[in-house]
Amino acid sequence: MPPEFYDYELIQDKSAKLESESQSFHDLDGSLYTNDNVDVKAIPVVFVEGFMGPGKPTYWGPLEKIFASSNDNNYEKKSKDRQCIFVFPGCGSSLHDRAIEIFYQIKGGRADYGKEHSKKFGHSRYGREYSGLYPEWSVSKPLHFLGHSLGGITIWKLQQLLNSNTFPAHLNPHPDMIRSLTTVSSPFKGSQGVYILGATTEGTVRPFSFGAWLGRFVHIYEYLDIKWLRIIYDFNVDHWNLSYRKNWDFSSYFSWNSSKSTITSDKKSVEIIQETANTYCSAYGLLQCLYKSPWLNFVDNAPHDMTIHAMKEVNATSKTFEKTFYRTYVTSITYEDPKTKYHRPQFSFSLPIPCYFLSKNIGSFQFPENAPNPPVSSKEMYKWHENDGVCPIYSQAHPHYECSPDKCKHHKGLPEFNIDASSYDIEAGKWDVWEIKNTSHFSIIPAWYGTKKQLLFFNGYKEYLDQIDRL
Questions:
Q1: Longest Cα–Cα distance in the chain
Q2: What does the record list as coiled-coil region(s) (predicted)?
């Protein structure tokens, strides 16, 4: 079904204008500049899905066409075609594990989750090996990133890891490898929706909650390890050793090919083989997982990382970098009930019925009085009630808990609908926030509906990237 109808007058005016023009993608790709005919090299853009995203490029729509260069009769070619890169991190994995996987999927090599991290949380140190989607990724050849929901905060985590000693020094990691970070409906401060679905402030999951049953389904799916099903949908949690192959097929532990070119040294080859052999000790049986999952019932997973208290810890040690351009799209589908002052969702074709009830509960959520260490006081909870069906708008704006002119700029609507859009300059190191009303968590990306709103969003995003590339 298509997303909800939207009723901004500016949107209607823009839509009417679009209907009178050609409907081809290239007609939607107008350049921000008309007096500069320089052939500019377009920096590739990486797309990152959110929680339980299937990781299929076709799911996003015909983005290759949308990001193709404009070359009409009026102007010379302004920029080369922009390469679109689609990554597929573990759809239920923690921010740390997802960020690690994205790095190696782009650069190439075997995913290394870190010795201390893997030992602390009980999974294998090494994951899958990747050939590299863009091996030349570096400070001199940075990338743009666009993430939806969990995907947005995964990129935020990746940039923090690039500023630490997480990745090998010979790969020259640096936060400036991310030229721009753009997010849509991302819970930078977490969401109370995760608590409603089963998370607790103690880092566990309520035994018979929706989250617990979803986790059990993932365990059964991974334990059966049916290869043709994994082609259709892959959770990418091999490092947790949940497959029956890790429990019964001992020969598989010695099947690594240490001669692959992405292995950088003999020492690393030995480490990988030894660590893989030791996987037998950390393989988890199905009954053990269904009773008390070592993955789900602790803190190294996506649901925990989307809680308010977990994101508080992440943001406490995170920073904004002065050479990266930050933009967030904040979506909202609720309205304030004049009697209760709580928020209720409006009707939307793009808001599934379960999310309708989730949105309603988010709009009136209060932590129980007996909840240990609630991350938000009852007096401050009103800030978290307006939401898009999954995430509160207070959480989506940026990681900072207070706004200030030197940290962020706030706007209403999509950029191309803003009357003064041509009068503002984008600034690196500052959060550029755009709040879009009457828009649900799933309206814009990543699912492709082919609506005018999506076309206008991607057209605006393309212009934004073109502007950055010219700086």
A1: 69
A2: none
**How many other CB atoms are there within 10 angstroms of residue 382's CB atom?**
15
The domain that contains 19 carries what CATH number? Answer: 3.40.50.1820
Q: Within 10 A of 165 (CB to CB), how many other CB atoms are there?
A: 9
| pTM confidence score | 0.83
101 within a domain of the structure (yes/no): yes
CB 78 within 8 A of CB 36: yes
Domain range for 59 is 9-108+141-168+177-200+301-470
Q: Which two tokens stand for residue 141?
A: 């050849």
- Total domains, the chain: 1
Which regions of 30-149 does DSSP assign to beta strands (E)? 45-48, 84-86, 109-112, 126-130, 143-148
Residue 339 within a domain: yes
Phi, psi dihedral angles at 232 (to 5 degrees): -75, -45
Q: Which residues are CB-neighbours of 297 under 8 A, at least 6 positions away?
A: 204, 205
Residues 438 and 331: their CA atoms lie apart, in Å, by 8
- Is residue 128 a part of any domain in this protein? no
Is the CB of residue 47 less than 8 Å from the CB of residue 85?
Answer: yes
Query: Strand ranges (DSSP E) for 321-430?
Result: 325-331, 334-336, 343-345, 408-412
471 residues of the chain, pLDDT tens digit each: 444 433 333 444 444 443 443 344 444 444 333 334 445 688 999 999 988 888 788 888 888 888 876 544 443 444 568 899 999 999 999 999 999 999 999 999 999 999 999 999 989 999 999 999 999 999 999 999 999 999 999 999 999 999 998 999 999 999 999 999 999 999 999 999 999 999 888 878 888 889 888 888 888 888 888 888 888 888 988 888 888 887 665 444 444 443 444 444 455 555 554 455 444 445 566 777 777 777 777 889 999 999 999 999 999 999 999 999 999 999 999 999 999 999 999 987 778 888 999 999 999 999 988 877 889 988 999 999 999 999 999 999 999 999 999 999 999 888 764 444 444 678 999 999 999 999 999 999 888 888 888 888 998 899 899 899 988
